[in-house]
## 1
Amino acid sequence: MSNTNKANEAYEKNEKNEITESKKAGGADIIKAENISFTYDGGGSEEKVEALKNISFSVKEGSFTAILGRNGSGKSTLAKLLCMVLTPDGGRLTVDGVDVTSDETTEEDIYEARKNVGMVFQNPDNQIVATIVEEDVAFGPENLGIEPAVIRRRVDEALDIVGMRKYARHSASRLSGGQKQRVAIAGTIAMRRRCIIFDESTAMLDPIGRREVMDSIVRLNRDEGITVIMITHYMDEASLADRVIVMDGGEIVMDGAPSEIFVRAEELWQCGLDVPQTTELLWRMRKAGLDVPLDAFGERECAEAIEKALEKAAKI
Amino acid sequence: MVRAEGRATPENKNGNENEYIAEFRDVTFVYNKGVTYETKAVDSVNLKIRRGLITGIIGATGSGKSTLIQMLNGLIKPDSGEVLIDSENILSKDVKLKKIRFKVGLVMQYPEYQLFDETVESDIAFGPRNMGLSEEEIKRRVESGARFAGLDFSLLKKSPFDLSGGQKRRAAIAGVMAMEPELLVLDEPAAGLDPAARREILGKIRDYRKERGTSVVMVSHSMEDMARYCDRIVVMNQGRVCMDDTPPKVFGSSEELFSAGLDVPGITKVAYELQKLGIDIGRDIYTVKYAADMLCEKYGLKASAENF
């Protein structure tokens, strides 16, 4: 084994340890935003648009956060700030301990900080760069200058995580939308991103494709300890997260566990959002005088909650 | 009068022939003909589209639904079979496709990428102008199209490229609506929109159909939306039509849907779970309000009339 190979191996080991250790420690903040704001100046001629107004929040390493909000609520701008494509106009943004808004931070520091955060976009056809699946997944690590043998291992691992190993040598153009998105996710995993931001990554997929991608997202958070920030318009997807942030008019208007957020159905409707169909049914039954909880999101849990309440009301 | 000619009026709705606005007769379309990856995108499809209704087409990615609807205005021509609009084979030499395209308005997927003109106004006016309408009538059409799409009139003088994504989508839809098509065909009109915007655009399509009797064909991946807004549902699987029925019938056949790579709405699954627990409100539950109403009726509760 060559020296570089050894070095790479040690590097790999370190990375893995780092992730598990910080997870064990209960999760340090991988992202910390303090009063960040962002305004699009519209190139001078247009009116200015204040997309984000003094947002403060932090994201713990290993957590799964869903961000909801109507079109124009500022959620995509927030995503661009978090992956450092845009820089906040004001406030302080720290990614993995690096203050990307400080004047003392160098280009290199930001470059290093960027290595921690990956992004998966909406359109499956816009983010595949190679013709063969495994080459596409290897593209990122290759550009990081990683040893070929290590790349090989990372690509295989990443494809396993998203359940696409058997398509490794397939032509990427002939995959379904859901499969393409999973290849894109594998690409970010192979780059050892510790935090992945999904910007409506299931919006263009059919029901099966959506389920495949959601399964992969849940798995890489739960089993691999990767921090997930997911922007979505689908309430059933958001209910899988351990935290839901609701944005409206460039501000955070709600922040809590799905069970705390979705029970506030009226407020969500006012923000142009929806609740999962299960919650809406429970909400309607409650309006009809049945004593049901609102936070049974799963279909079975919802049915059981209704059965219990009917029993209690001596209807069955 | 161009307007009267281009619209389904109650007077010309006589006899069986007029029950259907469009028909596919044994239509087949093959992609990559003659090479290794030859695929039958549409395979011997026979399908009739009812006049004055909203027909939803659902199917997994690659099931052929987008290909099928692009044949409705001759954008894609089948390799074999016939496509009929108002009982007229649009592929026959005597039929002018241009005229068909005035009749059949097609809003493609992500139409915001199709804007091209200098101003939003001229972009919307493009169709009506090609129809040879008077300037006065064009102006009226531009305004009614913009109004339908919820596009603020102050944006009409702007360049389409200065609009936000949502505004561009509205401008593109306005352009098709300005032609006042007799058959409106939409491919994923609500994709990428937030829940309120989805409800707005789908609700407007439903109201428009109610007001004018326009026939609508729409494709979507959202089982919930299709269940809520469509009168008929056509299910496609691997290039073939495998179901063509009412929403309760289609969403009540979960096994067929699953084998077509689809899903049932979340609320339908709740109905299955309730049934397992001995609370039987049927398996043909496809909207939340309907499920709540059925439960209330069965157990003597007073249902809330509110709708969202």
## 2
Amino acid sequence: MKITVTIFLLTLICTAQNLFAQNEFSRQYNLALKFYDEGKFYDAVTECKRLIFFDADSQYTYCAYMLMGKSYKMGAKFSDAILNFTNAELNAKTSDEVFQSKIEIIRANILRRTTDRALQLLDELDDDKNFSSRTAGINYWRGWTYIFADKWKKAAVSFSKIDSCKQLEKLCRQVDDDKYSETFSYLISHFIPGAGQIYTGNYVSGILSLGWNVLWGYVTINSFAANRIFDGLIELNFLWLRFYNGNLQNAQKFAVYENQKIANKALYFLQFQYKGLKP
Amino acid sequence: MKKIFLLFIFFFTTGFPQAVKQNEINLFSPANIKKFADYLFCSNDYLRAALEYEKYFSLYPNDSVKFKIATAYSKIGDYDKSALMFDSFTKSSELFPYAKMEYFKSLFQEKNYFRLRSSILNIDSINNFRFAYQAKELYYYSYLFTIDTLPPESIYLAHFDKTDIRQIKNFYEWKTDPPHKSPLLAALLSAVIPGAGKFYVDQVADGITALVATASLGYLSYTDFKAGHYFRGWLFGGLAAGFYAGNIYGSAAAAQIYNVKIQFDFENSIGVFINAKNFFTPGINFCK
């Protein structure tokens, strides 16, 4: 009886020790994770690389590549991040892991502003029957892709397909409404020089532009009227048309600039005040 | 029977996990650190490789690892560190001649030509230095990068390999007689004939434009004054004067830009050549 109890106790102790003994690779992954959490992304990448190099059975390869990708992303090295997320996708063992890695690739593409690639990947996910239950997630990132591509109307359409994204939809619609039409600003300046600048709220520039065009228009027409054709041609070419053309470019430039200000204000809000997931 | 069964359970539950554990590897053992460093080095991840090799080197110092650390630093452009490490090899080391050449290469890349030359002159004191010829090539090539007077052509070219002579000769001629344009002459030419300075610096289209614009505006100003149109006379006169003065200044600036451009092209060419030649350094391939 005594021997039986002794053997039983020994078994219990040794089994517990072995069961709770942490696997070396798991420890290594946690070390990398710790560096990542501490913002030491370079060290996190080093430890992930070490893990992948020694993990012959690829137990942690997927996780390590994902963590490496995230570390590179935090360092704004988006191309390296995408490379690692792609490696993670290649080492994914479940459809959930495939989806997660693909979404990370899309998010890095959004930040890298390679919009076409992000949209292409989102379309692929949309067409894949394995992910038919994840439409909301796909539309969510499609919306963000459009935001970063400065296509706020399309972003609003994408967010409108998700019930929980009404705030984002409203914001995108607001930005789209607030923006000036670059084409309209350019066109009205053809008819009334300076009108495009006034339309975008740049009154001084608009009036100055109108003044220059009136002055050189008058001088040019006056020359033609006095039969000084060569004078008129030179004034037309070097003065009036130069200011007229400058007025057109300026009108468009102001519209772009004002639109950038509106978009940046919205992006600032999204960066610092929006609480949901961001690229 | 009961005891046998319990013993079986004991050995199975304790022995099996132990066996698994034995297969576990210590990722931070010196051997594995070196293995990982070698992998990083051959994947061109030189900074990480250098840091890993340094960990190993602190436990097991040896010349081969030291050479790799220095090479890694050289690859990432930390020439100060690489030069220091390559210079620390003793003559007894098998890698000494290679390290010496890498040391010269680091000094060259650091643009420390003065130290490079004095160091290369010192190798004469080393008996039968294996790469003395290549070191001399590097010594003379460095003259192309400095403002120091070059040795006479025949002496200079005698130090280079025959296959490179033609290219080196071109560099030598460029260095001794660079095809620069004079900014003063360009400005003077444009003062005499508007646009002529631009022609001189090979900007023909700009030259024609300057000539036509200045002449047309000058002519208009003249005829306007003659016809009593003073506003237009002053207007075109002002524009003509602006074009004329701008062209003189522009011609001098164009000559300076021309000189900078050809200097840049020359430095680019000599840089490409020396890189292609690996700085006349033999090098060691650790990633075969």
## 3
Amino acid sequence: MTALEITGLQKNYVDSYSGEEVTAIGDVSFSVNEGEFVSVLGPSGCGKTTVLNIVAGFVNLTEGEVVVDGQAVSGPGPDRGVVFQSHALFPWKTVLGNVVFGLRMKGVPRAERDAKGKEFLELVGLGGFEHKYPHELSGGMQQRLGVARVLANEPAVMLMDEPFASIDAQTRRKLQEDLTRIFEKRHPTVFFVTHDVDEAVFLSDRIVVLSKRPSRVREIVTVDLPRPREWRTALEMPEFREIANRVNELLVDDEGAAAGADKDPGGATDADGTAVAGV
Amino acid sequence: MTTPRTEKQATAATAPSTGRPRPGGRPPGQQRKRKKGGSNTPAARAVSALWFLTPLALLVVVWLVVVAITDPPLRVFPQVGDVLSALGDMWSSGELFDHLGASLRRMGIGAAIAILTALPFGIALGSSAALSAFFSPLLRFSVALAGIAWIPVATLWFGYGDKAVIFIVWNAMFFAITYNAMLGVRQIPTQLLRAARSMGTSRLRMFWEVLLPGALPSVVTGLRVGLGYGWRGLVAAEIIASNAGLGYALFQAQKYFQTDVIIASMVIIGVLWLLMDRLMLAPLEKRTVERWGMTGGRG
Amino acid sequence: MASDTAKPVRRAPAGRTPRKSGASPGVVRARKVWLWLTRRAAFRNLGPFVPVVALWWLVAEMGVFDEAFFVGPPRVVEEFGDLMEKGILPGYLTDSLTRLAYGVGFGLAIGLPMGFVVAMFAKVRRFCWPILLFFQAVADIAWLPIVIVWFGFSLTAVTFVIVYTIVFPLMLSVVAGVEQVPRELLRAARSLGAGRTRVFFEVILPGALPSVAGGIRTGLGYGWRALVAAEIIVGTSGVGFMMFDARRVGDISQVFLGMAVLGILWYALDAMVLAPFERATVERWGMVRSLEADG
């Protein structure tokens, strides 16, 4: 079963500085199956975050089609939950208030949504923190909350935008293992954007490697490492290194040309006024 | 949050003036784009000037039409033409320049003295934790009281006239600038001070090279707040305690129900403030705070 | 990471024992008491006034200035007791506070909704912005004369001016506050299934609150001044009128009393209403607190 299908995706925007039209995404097509963990990797500035923003419905696409659960995407919706790099927790809501936000929007009765919220907090290891405020949590815990908030809403796809990039190296390892554990337990469909090759290999079933701008799919690498995965054992597996090396090579080929590229047009700050759908 | 305290303070320093958006700027939403430099071409400037002037022109048209339809007596509300001819009269009789000159001179002297006294004082206070802890509540109290509430005492001390008005302008600005300069210095990251000291910076040079520029985002906020209070203090003090100046002109006109002169003076006061902001504060901000990427003084 | 490390590096020779170990027990205890004291908010906020009042007293006692221009605390307290007894001060205070309450009430009722309308709709904002800036630039006090022509000196006139002073800073701060809500939060809410109305009430409104609180504070600061100015210029009652009336007859102690009353009132208003409001919302949520400069 295909949960997410991207066909012939193209994105142009007008650079507000030079006034020129820039093609950020040339032609991207791939699909994510239900219960599958797919990562998107690419040289910096290749627009991987833009792909995610388009799937999320934050940014309009120029050409092509994005279908989630059999429906074409237009605007953000609860079928595609997003975990942000900046966590994007509501500072004025408690931990529990953040987790049940999506359920409240759906109109789930209070007792039911609180029970469900607590269940997901337990799942990510935040049991007992229900009545704290987000700023009282550490960065790692904040991101666990970000994950729980999306999972509690049971979206068709969970979109993760470099969720661990702003977290220190040790905590990041731990969070990656926890995410894998949660994934192995509940099998949500995950679309994961990262620039960390090891992270992508460790977490994913498949890795979509994008080329430099205007980005195209360079190759889709299948990661057939056994699950459950753990960092300690994974690092010792020769297959792990092999896949990581393969992905690295794909990226290095592009590097020279990508070095001069800007930051991700991803947030598409430039296209804001017109492109941000519905916000 | 695991963020250390100093870092939090530093973030706070970047947004010292929530709730006081710059009066001279464009809507915040448009500024994001301008920062990239896209609208600095002459054509883009003309467009944005047009966007600024059209609503104001429309407002004048509405005024014209409403007054024409309802036709209120002159002593209640003047027609646009009345105000223009009042302006013309003030111009040709030289009255306008007398009043303008008097107001601007007082404002200039008061502001200059305030800046010269408040900046060193505020920065000195800020460079000591104990001093700033001691003076913070006192300054907050004084800021709340500054300006208009001093008019009775000022007129008692200095008599009616220039001195009292200048004192009010100084008083209105002094505390706001001192307080913000102090806050600004307190918000300079400790590491920056240590770096400067480890390079052997002398005390005097510290002031010019580190403390003053580091405190600048907050100082600009203080200047803006202070000028706002000073401007209001000036108008109020002129109404009460002088026989020249825009405030005096307003008050005289009120006595004789000359609404045309009142409105003309109000327009002049508004335009002057906008010019002051555009020509003095905005360039100062652009050349320093914004240029250095410190983005202070804006929500 | 203490923020008060801005002191010069210790210059003592390296081999010397730190001074602390040599301190006598009495000094240590005094230091402890001092540390305990400086941790109390009341002491930190009110303590500095003690030496200042003492200095004021001293200067007055020594007769540095003529008594017709400068009086000490005892005279002011005496005057306070006198006016309280006669019922003049309570009456004037009630008048001033009533005017302020009317002005602030209407100001909030008008400024907040208008601010959000301007902030939420880009087209409205683009059109209204220059007009907003212009009206903000015409200092509120400059409106007094025309308002008096329209309404005479009445509650309406004073309310008008205070409303005017509050509405514009408030609207501008609402716009800034709405702009300030991180885009990620809006996106997060949308992708969790919130519609436009829910996004407004659940995200934009609380997100703009720090800035709005700052705006209310600024507005109140201006409103307060406008009130005093109005009472001084054309007053018939109120604390501002009391001060100017006293000035006319040269009663300096009443002028000083008026200033003290105004200052204390503002301080109390700030400490009892505005600061707790900020603590209950902004600080509790761990959001960056606006360091509003004006009281």
## 4
Amino acid sequence: MTFKFLDLPLLPLEEIMSMMDVSDLLKISSCNRTIRDVAKGRKQIKSFYFLPYAQKEMMDSVDVFELLQIHRHLDYAKFFRVNPISFNLIVSNEIGIEIRLKDDKLLKWNIFMEFIGNAENYRGTKPYFLKINGEIVPSVLTKKSEMYTFWNDRLEGVKTMIAWLRRSFNMYFETFHVEGGSHPEFSKELRSIVNFANYRQHLFTNVMIDERKQLISHADLNFVAENVTAFKKHSHLGRGDFKGPRSNRFVESKSLLITDSRWFTLDHLLMTHCSTIRLVDSALDMHELSIFTLKVLKGDYPKLKHFCVKTYHKNWVSCILFKTNMFYSKRGYIRDGVYRTANDQLIRIPIGIVIESLNREVLATLIFPMQSDHPKKLKTFEMLIWPDFDGSNFDRNEVHYHPLGRAN
Amino acid sequence: MSVENAPVVDVDEAAIPVEKKMYYRFESNDKKEFRVSELAIQQSETLNRLVEAMGYTSEDVENKPAIAIENIDGKTLKLVFQWCEHHKGEAIPVDDGSVPKIVEIPEFDAKLMDIDNGLLFKLIWAADYLNIVQLLNVSCKKVANMAQGKTPAQLRRVYLLPSDEEDEAAKRAAQEAQDPRAREVEEEFEERKRQGGNSFF
């Protein structure tokens, strides 16, 4: 059943468009220039945000990808400014692109590339034909948030997609996400994609290395550490059964997170110049931590603001305090304080010891965390370094210490 | 005298003269005649103004020829007047500016609009021409609902939308048809440009 939409007078045409929701309006706008011109003047097309959350949640990868392409015809720059949408590059057994929308909850949609010979293994709910550079790529929606596109060579497929998105949409990939892959070509694909992506954009906001399901070889990890740069956050999610050596060519990103960091030695730590360092399940002992702490207090790590290590070792606070007594004074403590880090994370300070230099400049605060003495529970060593600390933000009881540990 | 002390008078309700309902006669472009109540006509701003301007009495309505509506055929006009009779006396909705505009289609309207798309198209034309706000709203909503969950390719088929290239070609063809000399001039200009001439004249 057809309807002669464009033969309607302007008023009913506008009425009909005012009753459509954004996704329908965008789709119909992509069909014809006259409709696009009318639609541009309408308020609801300005943003994806006018869609209710429930409707966004119901959208599948095909819908979202359509919407992105349609927005390209409209005010795409504004679309990106208004909508908290980001794109990630995924390399694992699957290679592809993840689209993320930060709303009430985080919504994710994936577009994967696969060899066309394997197409019959994918049973889909909705076939789709992706048009890239005038060529049609057969695709299928396998789950609501997963779309597989089929190529003669999946590596060439992901490269074509990256180049097309960069060129047509000026799209920036925010996160480089690597997971261990059992695929025999994994290393080759990883290198090829990294080199190709680096040619298009020289750094990412975040790098995420996930070894929780499958370990990544030492060579591949070194390659990623040396060739993929994240300016904001470098995360490494590990698992306990790997204890071999790792690269010490380490990150220059703002923030570093390593879970299961037993491989992360003092050498690694001394090479790390991040503003936030968070190590979980670390093998660093009291002696190593106090060496690093003294270096920080000396000013060797001017970027560092927050340092947190979770370890099984005990009694580190008193040990480190004893070592710092030689050179610094502890002028009091903070109770129930809060510190806001550069990436807007709030760090609670139940009780923190303020460390000052001999000329009474506040250098750092060592935090006494709330923790149990259970041998299986991780103990936390946490330190805030703040040369710009003004001392007046917190309820502080002045307790004076002598540099050699004797109270005044 | 206060209101409480006013004398109570029994009124014989049957004795009050009841105003006779007036029915106007309209004629479609295919010469079909309809009789529509005065109250139903109020749903249409165009017809309401027309009958007010004409100032017809009951006798005039019977004696004078039916009011002709030239642009609308009998089948469509029947639907329009059925709708007006069903919704007579209802308030005319005011646009509250909500985006997207929220309109619900009542059961009667849904049944009335269970028609083919050609007739729905004519109904929207009629509602727009006769300025019947609520009928225009519900009929437009029905068309808007057709777009739900469709891909652009399906929308192109349903709404008969030409692509940008087809649109452009049609526009060019229309221009050429209007002015056959234009193409000749353009070709001549291209030819001169190829030959390296600086100016056309």
